[in-house]
Design brief:
Length: 300
């Protein structure tokens, strides 16, 4: 497969360091290019052919690349490289009557499918992406953390953290706690979630609500009901139908009608059937007499 940004070796000489214009440009004004450079279309095309990695299609234009260089572009008809272009850099000093091919590269065009801009892993990772064995150190100078010997503004942490030998290396700063509180409040266990809006009461009044330590305990706790948000941090104004004070509906069935017992059996005597066309002693008369026998009652 062709290699993007391929450099040519001899006989095309050393690489000429030029500032190639944007790959999205496909047509330019050839009058702004020296005539010797602008007329070197076939020389540029032959350079692509000599590269041996694909044919040069339609000539798309030429644009200047400095005082003594220009870039010729050709359509690259290569499988998997739809819309890409061959860019051939040609150079010639003032007064020269021939050009030198300095570079041949494969570049994406304006409609090409290209890979997205690279984003480092530590910037694109999202909550829930970490798996066992992954390491994600906090950013340098993370504003959410302060050294353990610095007062955080949270009395329940400061009373312990400031004691020599008992403080953690770092603790959450006030900014970190505010960011956390905002994120938790906007989660599925916040006061504005659909579940909270239909709940009979709030978590702050529920027996399964376990307040967390520190300054955030005024608004957050952990649910201890395995049938609800078990183990999740919930807002005190969140709620669900499994509240400890929830009362279930009373009564059963409908008092407007008597219960129907489909196990009861009613015995009904079948009426006698008389065949007026049958002669005495025939099978039809015998059957009629049998059906009229009270002992042959059927049940429904």
């Amino acid at each position: 497969m062709p290699r993007p940004a391929s450099n040519l070796s001899a006989p095309y000489g050393k690489l000429l360091c030029v500032s190639v214009v944007s790959p999205n440009q496909t047509v330019s004004d050839p009058t702004a290019v020296d005539s010797v450079l602008a007329d070197a279309v076939e020389s540029a095309r032959q350079a692509v052919v000599d590269l041996g990695e694909g044919a040069a299609g339609t000539h798309l234009g030429v644009e200047p690349a400095g005082v003594s260089a220009a870039v010729h572009r050709f359509a690259a008809d290569l499988p998997g490289y739809g819309g890409w272009q061959w860019a051939v850099v040609v150079a010639a000093p003032p007064g020269a009557d021939a050009v030198t091919v300095s570079e041949v590269v494969l570049l994406p065009g304006p409609d090409s499918l290209v890979a997205p801009t690279w984003i480092p892993w530590d910037q694109r990772i999202q909550p829930g992406d970490l798996s066992p064995g992954d390491l994600l150190p906090p950013p340098v100078g993370d504003p959410r953390l302060v050294p353990g010997y610095v007062a955080t503004g949270d009395p329940e942490i400061d009373d312990v953290a400031l004691e020599l030998g008992f403080g953690r290396t770092s603790v959450m700063s006030r900014e970190g706690r505010l960011d956390t509180a905002e994120r938790w409040a906007e989660s599925d266990y916040g006061p504005d979630s659909p579940m909270a809006k239909t709940a009979p009461s709030t978590c702050g009044k529920c027996g399964f609500y376990l307040p967390i330590a520190g300054s955030l305990k005024a608004a957050f706790g952990v649910c201890g009901n395995e049938m609800s948000a078990d183990g999740h941090v919930v807002h005190a104004e969140y709620g669900c139908g499994a509240h400890s004070d929830t009362v279930g509906p009373t009564g059963a069935g409908s008092p407007a009608f008597d219960a129907y017992d489909d196990g009861a059996v009613e015995t009904v005597a079948r009426p006698a059937v008389v065949d007026v066309e049958a002669e005495p002693g025939t099978e039809a008369e015998s059957l009629t007499e049998e059906e009229s026998d009270p002992e042959t009652e059927s049940t429904l």
